């Protein structure tokens, strides 16, 4: 798998930070989010940290939809967060 460009890496890191922030705002643990989204807690942790082994995390669309549902946000919320400065 090719390494992400600088822009892609920034997006992945922003996504992880956004998920971490939402989780903290809701007072949820990684385990609670993963359970609600029906994904493995290790997978969720990798997405938050933006890494998967020696590769950048690259969650599937269905995984992101499950996470957004579990955290009570919309795809619009996600896209808007990508346009905000950190």
TrEMBL record:
Pfam family, one: HTH_31
Gene3D superfamilies found in the cross-reference section: lambda repressor-like DNA-binding domains
Classification via SUPFAM superfamilies: lambda repressor-like DNA-binding domains
CDD domains recorded: HTH_XRE
Domain of life: Bacteria
Residue ranges annotated for the HTH cro/C1-type domain, each copy included: 19-78
Family matches, as PROSITE patterns: HTH_CROC1 (PS50943)
Name of the protein: Helix-turn-helix transcriptional regulator
Organism for this UniProt entry: Microbacterium croceum
């Amino acid at each position: 798998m090719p390494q992400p460009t600088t822009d892609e890496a920034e997006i992945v890191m922003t996504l992880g930070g956004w998920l971490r922030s939402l989780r903290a705002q809701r007072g949820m643990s990684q385990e609670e989010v993963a359970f609600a989204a029906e994904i493995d807690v290790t997978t969720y942790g990798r997405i938050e940290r933006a890494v998967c082994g020696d590769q950048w995390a690259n969650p599937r669309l269905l995984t992101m939809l499950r996470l957004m549902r579990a955290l009570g946000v919309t795809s619009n919320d996600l896209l808007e967060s990508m346009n905000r400065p950190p």
